[in-house]
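Need LysR family transcriptional regulator's 3D structure for a figure. Predict it.
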Amino acid sequence: MLDLDRLRALHAIAEYGSVSAAAEVLGITTSAVSQQIAKLERETACRLLERSGRGVRLTDAAMLLAGHAERILGLVAEAEADLEAKRGSVVGKLKVASFATASRGIMPRALRTVTEAHPELTVELHECDPKAALPQVLRGDFDLAVVHDWRGSPLSFPEGMDKLHLMDDPAEIALPSAHPLADRATLAVTDLATEDWVGAPPSDICHAWLCHTLRSHGMEPRIVHFSQEYPTQLALVAEGHCVALLPRLGRGTLPAGVVAVPVRPRLVRHLYIVWRCESRRRPAVQAMVEALREAVDTVGTTRTVHLRPGSVTA
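Structure prediction for LysR family transcriptional regulator:
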């Protein structure tokens, strides 16, 4: 009989491309992963890994078995979810992914709510970019994720996921307080056509959105500074080096020398909770979803839409 832990190790190598990456995802050592594969090779009487340069590659037999492993592990996850739903107990461990500003602006309150209500549930939070979180939820590395996208830069939600709209988060233009336009009640993006901007690094979804937003208004982006962290962006604005377009959630208190002016017309990013379809009946997942919905009530107006099972929209 094939061992599930060994199949899980093979599946992780197939998904992440190396023994070391699989070990990191599984939370074990590279030696432990190699041992699992060696045992699986003895069980199947097949060579599963071959050297390829400084790494390894899966043999044809391994690729065949990895495909079966994905389906087997999916069925196991579904069975576990059904049993958990049958028991109706909010217990065990839940792995949650969240992008940085939601981790700062929503998750602390949500974690307190869910752990106080369900002391036998352990929630493990991982800060993760939305584009990276989606496939990891689908693979089962995370049980649930909080992700976001912007109009003009939508996420592609894969089949096999449920999605719940959590809230809309408005963006504002951050200006030096001495800027000639700092006293305006609202600003159009085109009012800042000649300004230098600070934004997220090019690999970040927020960078793509900023570029799209500026170009959609006929402006070629003049992004001269790049930072993942809002405090860094705001510090640059405070010293008069640039302006920024930042959402409110997780932004924190504005530093001295910075004002935030609403954008005209309104710009928002959309926050969602996503989980695998087979997990929708898990009491732990449901409890975390409810805690997140309560948490967003403290930061802004929410509009939740629970889509029918298996359906997602961009």
